[in-house]
Here is the input.
Amino acid sequence: MLSPAVLALGATALCAAGCVWYLPAVADLRAGADRPASRRLAAAACLTAWATLALSAPLLLAAASWTALGALTVIGAAAALLLAGLARARRGQEERATRRAWAALRVWPSAAGRARPTRVFLRWFIPGYVVTAGALAVVVIGGTMGR
Here is the structure.
């Protein structure tokens, strides 16, 4: 079984490598009203997910119980998923408002740029949390069996 120090080191290294996701999210939140509300909500979801991982490292080093780590993971994942869902709903509202505005002008936007980055994000985000939860379960079950 891996020691908590090794797991904390892995979480820290992963957080350091994840800056390509959370630094743009920080920029989106700092931009405030210059960004659409859906984008700010998505940025908050991203930061919540990374903060959950970042908070697990000190808990691992402090030898917190696996129950506390599991609770942190579940609460963080639930909050991130809730924010991501709210961002998705808000984006739909914003798109409908944009379509209504274009319809009022009787001008239609081009079909280019209709990609759904949220779907791509969720395709990687949700399985990532499932794998993390599975790995945590293996560590917890392995930790209780070895005692």
